[in-house]
Batch of 2 targets.
Target 1
Amino acid sequence: NESLHELDPEVAVAVDAELKRQQSTLEMIASENFAPVAVMEAQGSVLTNKYAEGYPGRRYYGGCEHVDVTEQIAIDRVKALFGAEYANVQPHSGASANQAALFAIAQPGDTILGLDLAHGGHLTHGMRLNFSGKQFNVVAYHVDDAGLVDMAEVERLAKEHRPKVIIAGWSAYPRRLDFAEFRRIADEVEAYLWVDMAHFAGLVAAGLHPNPVPYADVVTSTTHKTLGGPRGGIILARNKDFAKKLNSAVFPGFQGGPLEHVIAAKAVSFKVAASEGFKERQQRTIEGAQILAERLTSEDARAHGVNVASGGTDVHLVLVDLRDSELDGQQAEDRLHEVGITVNRNAVPNDPRPPMVTSGLRIGTPALATRGFGADDFREVADIIAETLKPSYDAEALKARVTALAEKHPLYPGL
Ligand code: PLP
C-alpha cells in the first residue's frame, strides 16, 4: 500500500512536474483538454484490475457484475448523448476505434476515400505508413483555394473510383463538414459513410455543431479532445445494422480485455457532457477560437505574414498560416513555448516546408475553456500570441502576461 512517492519517487517527481507544467502554462494543443478530477478518480480506480473480455452480460470471465454496470452506463449515456442506437465504448483509443470501424465495413484491398493528411486529415484515414494506407487502396480529397473541403472533388473522385467507404472527418480543419452532402455522394456511388468526429464530438454533444450520427453508417470518436474525458475511443451508429460486425471487430478482432477503469471514466465524462455547464464551456471554446482567428487576421498580424487558413473558424481551433511569415512552424512553436503557450506546428494546405518543420500552427481553445477562460481572457491570449509571432518580441513581458492568466484561472487547485 505504498504511495507513488514512496514506491517510485523517480516517476512521482516527473508526474508532479507535469502537473506543475499544466498549471503554469497555457495549453492550446487543439486535441488536448483537462479531464475532471472525478474522471481521473474513476480511471485510477480498482477497475484497472479487472479482466472482462466480451460485452456486458456476455463475458468470458467471472466477477464482471460491477464492470457490467459501469460499461452499460457508459453505453446508455453515450447513445443518449448523440442519438445513436448502437455504441461500443471499448476502443482503447481513437486509432483503435477507426481500425475496428474500417475493418467492420470494408476489407483489405477495398478503396477508401478520405481527406489528405496534408490538408487536415488523420493518419487513420489513409496515410501511407498507417494500417489504413498499407491495407487499403487510398484515394484522397483536398481543400480548395479558400481552404474549404472541395465537395465537387469528393463527388468527382467518388464517381471515378467507386470507393467502398467515404471518410468525413479531420484533425486540422477549422470549418464544419456538410454531412448531408457526404451522404448524398455516398448513396450515389453505393459507398458507406464513416464520420470520424474525434475533434468536434464535444461541440456536437453541446448542440453547437451538426450531429453526424443521423447521416453516417458508422461514427467514431475519441473521448479526450473536445469531449473532455479520459483518453480513449468510441464507435457509434444510427442503427444496429453493423452492430455485430463492429462489436466483433473490436473484440476479438483487434482488442483483448477492455480497459474497464477507462470505460468507467468515459461514463462519468458522458454525464458531464450532457450538462448545461458543458454546453456553456463549449460555447466559450468556439468563441475563444473565433477571437483568436480575428486577432490573427487583423492588419497588424497580416503585416508580419501571419494569416489564418480559411480566414476564420467555426470550431475549437485555428489553423495559422505562416507561409508569408519569416517564421516557420517549428520556430513559431518554439517561441510560443518560450512564453508559456503550448501548441503544435502543423502543415497548412500546399505547405512548401517538410512535415517536421511546416508553415503552420494548430491552436485550440478547449483546454483553456475548461480552465474557465472567457472572451476577455481569450482576447488577451490572442494578443500575446500575435505579439509573440512578430519579428521582435519581448519574451519576458509576454511570459508574465501568460503567468497572470494562469494564476487567474487555477487548474486542479486541490491536487
Ligand atoms: N481521429 C482523428 C480525427 C484524430 O484527430 C485523432 C487524434 O489525433 C484520432 C482519430 C486518433 O486518436 P488517438 O490518438 O486516441 O488514437
Target 2
Amino acid sequence: MSNIQDKVVIITGASSGIGEATAKELAARGVKLVLAARREDRLKNLQEEIEKDGGQVLYKETDVASHDQMEELAAFALKEFGKIDVIVNNAGVMPLSPLHEKKIAEWDSMIDVNIRGVLYGIAAVLPSMRERREGHIINVSSIAGHLVFPAAAVYSGTKYAVRAITEGLRIEEASHNIRTTIISPGTIKTELLEGITGEELKAAIVEDSKIGISPANIARAIAFAIEQPEDVAINEMIVRPTVQE
Ligand code: NDP
C-alpha cells in the first residue's frame, strides 16, 4: 500500500506550471494539500478544481521571498492539518539576461525567490519535522543547476545554490530522519519564460523550448519520491525531454 495517502504537503509556486501539476497529481493520490503563491485567484480556481474531484486542499497567498509569510504558511498548515509531512519548494523565476546588461533588479529577484524562498521554506518546516523525527523537503533546482548556459549565469547560480543547500540539509538532517530530494527538470512547457524581458533572447529561448515536455512529468517524479518507504530517500532526480541534448 502506498504511504502517500493522507500526507500533508505544502507546495510553493502552485499557481501555475510544475507546482499546479504537482498539486493535481498529489491530490489524486489522496494527499492533503496547502498551496502557496502570490496570485490568489489562481490558487482559488485550482482549489475548486481539485475539490470537484474529491481532493482536500487549502491555499494561502504567500510571497516566498518573505520570511514572515513563509513562517505564517507553515503555521497555517500545522493549525489546519496538525502536521507537515512534505514541503515542495518549487516557486521560481527566470528572467534570463547576459551579465553585461546589468539587470540588477532581476538578479535580486532570482536570488530572493530561488534562493531565499527555498531557505525560508526549509526554515519554516524544519522545527516541526525535527520534533516528529519525520519529514521530507523537496527542492526544485534545474538542469541549470548542473550546467551553465549563456544569459543564465545568475539563474544557474541560484539553481546550483539550491542543490548545494539541499545537499547540506541532507547531511545535517539525516540523523533526524528527514528526507531531502533535489528535482532538476530539463525543458518543461510552463509560463517560466514569460519573465524574460529581452525580446530577442526571449524569442530564441521560446524557439529552443519547443521540445519541452508537460509539467505533469515532473509532478509524477515528485510523487515517486514522496511515495517511497520512509527509510528510502530519493536524493536527486534529473527529468529531461528525451530529445534534449
Ligand atoms: P511557472 O512560471 O509556471 O511557475 C512559477 C511559480 O512560482 C508560479 O506559481 C509563481 O506564482 C511562483 N512564484 C514566483 N515568484 C514567487 C514568489 N515571490 N512567491 C511565491 N511564489 C512565487 O514556472 P515553472 O512551473 O516552470 O517553475 C517552477 C519551478 O521549476 C521553478 O523553480 C523553475 O526554476 C523550475 N524549473 C522550470 C523549468 C522549465 O523548463 N519550466 C526547468 C527547470 C526548472 P505567483 O506568480 O502566483 O506568485
